[in-house]
Amino acid sequence: MSDSIALNKANWDERAVLHAASKGYDTASFVADPRHLSGVVRFDLPRLGNIAGARGVHLQCHIGTDTLSLSRLGAHMTGLDFSPGAIAQARLLAQRCGAQVEFVEADVYDAAQVLSPGSFDLVYTGIGALCWLPSIDRWARTVSELLKPGGRLFIREGHPILWAVNEKHRDALVIEYPYFERKEPTVWDSNTTYVETEGSLTATVTHEWNHGLGEIVTALLTHGLDITALVEHDSVPWEALPGQMSSSPDGEWRLDKDAWRLPLSYTLQAMKRRD
């Protein structure tokens, strides 16, 4: 195991327990209301369309709230994550909800080895996932390996230009971090996470990599997928730039000043070629 994976796994094992108990993930609402969906999935309902009966896999599923939401829309879902702590919480949530969702512990790059390659109608990746992967090309190859011909990739992610902005500046948008993928990771050291939690982290060091939008599109095209939709959004589901954003009634956060200055997230869809 590389140092980066070991560091990130330790961090996400701790986050999983804190997130499962947090108001931000609101697992109680999933248990109380069988129609409840995560904010991330709810945001993209018009673009998701009818997925009833589809065999889907959610890569980097974390504690499974998006995976469970897709299951509630009628898809037969499997969630995959490299964190045993996250998988444990995901399985517990599914059990509490009486949901038939399978969760598998594995690195995303190993997904085609531990799951059935070429058998999925839908590969889903939620927000805040790709920045933990050192190679976007390897990710795209994995997606292609998992999908049936004609199968669909659906991803909503933080925009790579957002990841390049230094959030510590509260009166300006300052690009200080990489936009393009680099071999060396950006190293972070923080005992907090992106939602309010009761406790703090002890595994504080993490490694991340950005991937430009063109790099993502090119990787998917290279591995046999054609882009069918790409929408850039002026919002994200958390306060990504503290002091410069406000929450909207839809649960999304937008810039207070001139939201048209910066794309904050995007939704991308692609289909695996049939030939």
Structural features:
alpha/beta; Rossmann fold; seven-stranded mixed sheet; three-stranded antiparallel sheet; 31% helix; 24% strand; methyltransferase activity; SAM-dependent_MTases_sf
- What strand line-up does the widest sheet have? 3-2-1-4-5-12-8
Q: Return Rg in Å.
A: 18 Å
The computed structural class is alpha/beta
Share in helix: 25-40%
Quick one: overall form?
Answer: globular
Order of helices and strands: HHHHEHEHEHEHEHEEHEEEEE
Ends apart, CA distance between termini: 36 Å
CATH architecture: 3-Layer(aba) Sandwich
What's the CATH first level? Alpha Beta
The description of the largest β-sheet is: 7 strands, mixed
GO molecular function: methyltransferase activity
Organism: Archangium minus
GO biological process, one term: methylation
Protein name: Class I SAM-dependent methyltransferase
Textual characterization of the structure:
The protein has 275 residues and is an alpha/beta fold. The chain has one domain (3-272): Rossmann fold, CATH 3.40.50. It is built from ten helices and twelve strands. The chain has helices at residues 3-20, 27-32, 39-43, 45-48, 65-72, 84-97, 111-114, 136-146, 160-163, 213-222, and strands at 55-59, 76-81, 102-105, 120-125, 147-158, 186-189, 205-208, 225-233, 235-236, 245-247, 253-255, 265-272. Strands 3-2-1-4-5-12-8 form a seven-stranded mixed β-sheet, with helices on both faces. Strand 4 (120-125), helix 8 (136-146) and strand 5 form a beta-alpha-beta unit. Helix 1 (3-20) packs parallel to helix 6 (84-97) and helix 8 crosses helix 10 (213-222). The longest helix has 18 residues, at 3-20. The chain starts with a helix and ends with a strand. The relative contact order is 0.16. The mean pLDDT is 96. Keywords: Methyltransferase, Transferase. GO terms for molecular function: methyltransferase activity. Residues 58-153 form the Methyltransferase type domain. This is Class I SAM-dependent methyltransferase.
